Batch of 2 targets.
Target 1
Amino acid sequence: MTGTIQQQVFEIIAKQAKTDVANVKPESTLKDLGVASLEAIELIFEIEEHFNISFPDQQGANFDSDSAQSLVDAVQKALADKAAADEGSK
Amino acid sequence: MQSPTLRRVAITGMGAISPHGVGAETLWQGLREGRSAIGPLRHPDAARLRVKVAAQVPASFDPAAGIDERTLPLLDRTSEFALHAAREAITQSGLDFDENGLGLRTAVIVGTGVGGETTQDEQSKRLYGENAARAHPLTIVRLMTNASASHISIAWGLRGPTFAVASACASANHAIIQAAQMIRYGQADVAITGGTEACLTYGALKAWEAMRVLADDDCRPFSANRRGLVLGEGAGIFVLESMEHAQARGATILAELAGSGMTADATDIVSPSADGAAAAMRQALDDAGLAPQDVDYVNAHGTGTLANDVTETRAIRLAFGAHAGRLAVSSTKSMHGHALGASGALELVAVIGALRDGVVPPTANLDQPDPACDLDYVPNVARRMPVRAALSNSFAFGGLNAVLALKRAP
């Protein structure tokens, strides 16, 4: 899977939602896309595995209401944090 | 459906190994004082885990104390807990199973969510992590889910119906209900029952982390700042006995197990349904011959997750109607954590204490009321009040609900 981070995240969401990637818009929530509850947790896991990152725990968070763009932002932040940590350990 | 021929069920013994320590009274004293046993996670791999807190049986627990040295190597941690709790309960009951063939009239039904997880985890580590050529020869007998029930049967010569019950977090309540039904229908005169769990292994903790339902600070049921559940461990074991059998021998009766309700949501594998839980509570009331206004206390499932606490509140309102607002409702998981397949058993200790002593244990850490949780949760401080009858709720992943109805000893 290549392309921008946004494209990659949208493709993972589309796969989990069993829909065409064209249907994933930045403002779509997971719930809009029919990804709820345990499936949303599974999606978070797929994104973590794909980018080799860890999202911080979001206790009390409701992933169902997260938008596709907010997940892209979270990936970008996690990648930046990871790069900074790698830099720091050199 | 209540048949006039059903026998009544007395509880004549209780035992517990819990995060509060050894003994049912130790647990009850902790709960009635509002004392939490949740603390920093003790684990060799803690540095590689996100889980920071747990409700663990204290390190001072000595599994070998009073256990036959030839039996010890056969035991997973779940069976150690169960055997110690069973010994306490049976000693309190004063029963002699050699007398009049009572052993053959005694059932052993023990609930556990996952069984011998510690054994499983150790063997996996050995085989996959250390490339060991062979597994330990006692692996199977340690990890089998029925091991706890079988060890209790063997230790006391109990030869009636003996097996394990598994329904995740409702395992203990389902086991206790099964045991009570055997007594009601005359399949047994006595039953040793309850639940045991010990699954705070690296593998299991990682799996719970991945579900993102664990709190990172504390267990705060029904509080707006709740952040999830806190895992626990332990065992609670009880002696159930037909009321006539208990009264004929002049036994001290701790409480009457008056009825039960069991339903399945049949909706989602994890998200709970208020209708399913409410139906189980209604069944338990009907089965026990209780009207809503006869009940003073509900020991809630109260995990401290976003989903459970709101849904359970709605379910209690559905089941109790106008009386819901007059109930004392508390989640003792705020203090002993969520012992999964043993949780209903630890909570039964709390309910028996409430009925016997007239003290309702509190919901600890309830400092920010949630508008969606609008019942009287007995926040933070125990309440002295007469408790005539109580319900104890257990709801499991998989949408399984099991509710006990208890009455004060006659």
Note: The mean pLDDT of chain A is 87.
Target 2
Amino acid sequence: MRTGFIGLGAMGRPMALHVHRAGHELAVWARRPESLVDLPARICASPADLGRCCEVVFTVITSSPDVEGVALGKDGLSDGMAPGSVLVDCSTIAPESARRIAGRLAEKGIHFIDAPVSGGEQGAIDATLAIMAGGDATVLERVRPLLECLGKRIVHVGPNGAGQVAKACNQMIMVAAIEAAAEAMRLAAGAGVDCAKVRQALAGGSAASRVLDVMGERMVRRDFSAGIEARLHHKDFGLVLEAARRSGVPTPLAAVVAQQLNALMAQGWGRDDTSSLLRVLEQA
Amino acid sequence: MKIGFIGLGIMGRPMALNLIKGGHAVTVWARRAESMQPLLEAGAQGAASPAEAARGNELVISMVADAPDVAEVMRGVASAAVAGQVAVDMSTIAPAAARKIGEDLAAAGIDFVDAPVSGGEVGAIAGTLSIMAGGSDAAFARAKPAFACMGKNIVHVGASGAGQVTKAANQIVTGMGVLAVAEAFAFAAKNGVDQGKVREALLGGFAYSKILENHGQRMLDRNFKPGFKSWMHEKDLNIVMQTAHELGLCLPGSAATAQMFNAMVGSGMGEEDSIAVLKLLERLSGQA
């Protein structure tokens, strides 16, 4: 299938390469052309140009306004994509934005799947991403062969926006777990107990988790270099709390975690790993 | 002074009436024409658009719901701009939004003051609002005679946006204050102690506050009629939390409070007064 990719950063680049390796033709566009070096792909002049030559287009970019701009803006994908083609957005954006983009594309007969991913850079490289999809089931089936190049666990959550809601839920649980691990490490240190031993002991019991495993390890080693840049989790928590607000659902824990992330940003650690939440606790 | 007044809701109507009572020549505009009627009867002129309400007036005041509404009416005002005009927005919006509107108006030669208020409908009717203003000294001086008709405690806090920052700070204190009094009452009740007696005892000490006195009394009376609607307090706390997010500012107490108001709106108490947070606490602890 002729497949386009926009957003060839830490996540998008390995994803595009997996699709290419599976035998699909690749076309790419980037705001900064230097991110396109060494890609076995046709380089397009604009998102519209890319849209014209692809049956399926993937976007893997940072924020809601960026995705809306690329999809709907001047020379955007919607100016080029043919009726019946599919835009698969793997970015983490607001459910509202996903629904809005889907609605506008539908006016031109273009299909949309919101398909945010979890698993980080390593998951993208290993093609083991968890993919949470929102959109029409038959459209999802058409692009499933491509998604299977990227990850093993592909779940159709519901209509457009549902994938982004699932991703918001994912981020809530994950970052709250990082905060919990940080507080446990802080408590251990404050009580004069060896953090590494505590983490090791916990790993065998009911508190064991992937977050305690990976992020706890970084906290013990005091290796705060990214990892997952904390500024992205900070951005995502803005989306989480906005979604909670729109739904009128109280999320008291997420609200407090968001404040710790605000403090992390204020300390200038946004480009470091989110295990830096430990360092926020140490400021108090 | 010739004043254009835009937005005639629960707050705007009595504020505009007080300007007329103060002897100013007021031209009004509201989205719903019928809300203009009581003002026309009181001697105001009617306008067909925000631009027309602004045209030829030294001062233009808006009192509307949210930032997009303010931006829209101010675009109309700018289209009819006369050099030296002053525009004042008394709605509660985000500081960043106010600064942006100020810049846009400056480009049209209009000096802008953000001047949100505290004191509610009662204060608007009595002309006793607290007014917190942000903008240039010259623009504040021009608007001050109008402020004096609508409010008592009028403070020029600083540059553009400073009024909205102050209002957000006000909502932090009042939001947490209402929650604090409600929690104290829930605490007393669960311990089998009379809430009214607790309030009376606390009024004499360091826990005294206007909120304990007034909101506390309404909690005792279980009078949840607004006052100040929960959904509006939720909206204002959202401005606080958005701004904290953008700045990288840790506000754990405000965050917890905002979630309580979020839950109130979600469970259908949005139209009740913010003291209904007491009912939410009672429900959470099985006291209802």
Note: Chain B touches chain A at residues 234, 238, 241-242, 244-245, 247-252, 255-256, 258-260, 262-263, 265-267 (CB under 8 Å).
